[in-house]
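Justification of computing resources. Each target in the renewal requires a structure prediction run like the one illustrated here; the chain below, 81 residues long, is used simply to show the kind of job we budget for.
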Amino acid sequence: MDMNTFFNDLQSKINQAIENSPAKDIEKNVKSMMTQGFARLDLVTREEFDIQAQVLAKTRAKLEALEARIAELEARLTAEK
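Resulting structure tokens:
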């Protein structure tokens, strides 16, 4: 029996033991609890976050353009007086 066969056999036996042990149930329960906990936190996906960041950047650019336009109009108004 070579070492690869030995280790593969050992790994399969360990995997079988884990599958049949309470550890697998604990893992499933922890995953379920974490999923429920994250669902309650009202989190957003990375894609949604990136989209909102783009919307915010566009809005910020428009706001800066409007502020510049208002400053220009105010300067014209005071120059005409």
